[in-house]
What does this fold into?
Amino acid sequence: QEDLVESGGGSVQDGGSLRLSCVASELASNRLYSTWFRQAPGKEREAVAMIFRGNGFTNYAESVDGRFTISQDNAKRTVYLEMNSLKPEDTGIYYCASAIRPGSWRVPESYARWGQGTQVTVSS
It folds into this structure.
């Protein structure tokens, strides 16, 4: 069973940067889609960025496009989320998830495996 472990969260000022990492205990051969989600208090879980392991194709939520970059290192079984120009509204728990083929990359129910989450706090 593939386990996912996130790290790299923390507290930064408005405009700061963080890099999150998600390490898989193993690479499930058929689970090719990796996505970062986030959840702020009192809000629904929101898809932030997705990467397709096969060719590196990426998708981003409009709210983070141009500020966040998702990438992967398959040799290290790791997916990264580089976050720049952070804003207070980026605050939340960030989760990584993997799926065989999500019907929609934005839908949490499409993902079978989840990490435990890492807290990101951006203060103004």
Summary: The chain has a mean pLDDT of 94. The radius of gyration is 13 Å. DSSP finds no helices and eleven strands in the chain.
